Amino acid sequence: MADDFDQPAATLTLAEALDQYLSSLKNEQRRTQEHYIRHFVKHTGEQQALTFLTGSRVELYAEREIKSSDPNAQERVQALKSWFQFLKKREYTAGRAVANANRGALRVEEQPIEMTSDGIDQLKIDLGRLQEEREETVHAVEIARSDGDLRENAPYHAARERLAFIDSKIKSITETLKRAVVVERAAGEERSTVGSTVAVTMVAEGKTQSYQLVGAREADARQNRISVESPVGRQLLGRMAGETVVVELPNGKQIEYRVDDVKHD
Q: Which CATH architecture has domain 196-264?
């Protein structure tokens, strides 16, 4: 049976190329990167040949799908770059072309991230907790390393993977805090902004609901805190009492809402 890595790029599909890359990763790396790359592959076409992959297509994807307000934007970009570098090392023509182009194609402008003051405070708490956990995990790595042969040392590899995950989260939160800003509202502002609580009525059903509009990292459906990047949040942002909006959901269904009240916490 021929080695899959010997398959030419002209016949290798994006899905197959992704499977090759994922099989080369450690478990923690795979958990961190798979979702982001698979989203790109599905968007581009799983059964498309690897040669279909070009710098211009990557750039178009980045413009449409990777928003600067997404707190995971840098992680998404890094995951794709790592995959492209893997393809380049395998000497796939498409991989070389895209890897050489991705410096410009996969660039996310570091614009301010609008958040609530509570959300920023929570990120600082999360960062402190992760930094403490990192110290404990580093200690666990050192203890596991002292136990002998690292090739058969499962606790050592588990601790290393956990450390890599923690470092990734610390980096993400740190980058977010660098760009995080609390939205300033003008006195007497009637329109909704990040941090506002918007009371709405579903026109067709007469059902009422209140949502707090927050940044993507703060969203929590259980507390009715919705991201301004979500379909509903995007439409309710910048609205005032008395207005109606139509929200189109991912499944194509449309829901009309009437804005009843806007409060600024």
A: Roll (3.10)
